[in-house]
Design goal:
Length: 212
């Protein structure tokens, strides 16, 4: 049965891959986490980003996406929540301080020692789950690229694939940026890089609010 949906799947997969590679909040957070705290933290963050995608998959499959799309005030509320979280991340990044020699890096009052695997995963998860860009992508993709006649089980496989692609892509980004030479260079200017990422995230959040 699945061979009947290959064309639809490939179209969706290519469009999704392009959306994932395009820099956005997920990319900024993955890079910052890796450069600031190392490969392990970057990988846990990447896995969280992949898992966060499941939120969009689930609400799409149960029809909440259609409800959001047909209820303007509800959609607007969801977008405001997402924009607020992105703004929060941007402010945190903007307050970033230089790395210390001991490796206890301060970020908005917290230290590297508090960046446990669970916290890293949660940061990645929340970044993607509340990302309006991902919400809009799923609303567009599953209403234009996926046929209404496609079985729910097949659509669920599409969603699972997208979660895996998200996780794998950002794991690769984390591994690439955690190389000793690369990370060492980044650490010297990491606070400036994070502040730049903070400005971009704040700009992204403001742009989302202005559009609405």
């Amino acid at each position: 049965m699945l061979h009947h949906y290959w064309a639809e799947f490939l179209t969706l997969a290519v469009v999704h891959l392009l959306a994932v590679i395009a820099p956005g909040p997920d990319f900024a957070v993955a890079v910052r986490q890796t450069v600031r705290f190392g490969r392990k933290t970057g990988i846990y963050t990447a896995l969280g980003i992949g898992a966060g995608m499941s939120v969009h998959v689930i609400y799409t499959l149960i029809g909440v996406a259609a409800l959001l799309n047909s209820t303007p005030w509800l959609m607007k509320a969801a977008r405001w929540i997402g924009a607020a979280y992105i703004l929060y991340l941007g402010v945190r990044f903007l307050l970033s301080k230089p790395a210390t020699d001991s490796g206890a890096v301060e970020v908005g009052g917290s230290v590297a020692a508090t960046q446990t695997p669970g916290r890293s995963f949660a940061i990645g998860f929340m970044t993607n789950a509340t990302n309006p860009k991902a919400t809009l992508f799923f609303l567009a993709a599953f209403t234009t690229l996926v046929s209404a006649q496609t079985p729910l089980a097949v659509q669920a496989l599409y969603g699972l694939w997208m979660c895996l692609v998200n996780a794998v892509w950002f794991v690769l980004v984390s591994v690439a940026l955690s190389a000793a030479a690369v990370r060492q260079r980044f650490l010297r200017v990491s606070h400036w890089f994070e502040r730049l990422m903070g400005v971009l995230l704040i700009g992204f959040a403001i742009r989302l609010v202005m559009v609405w």
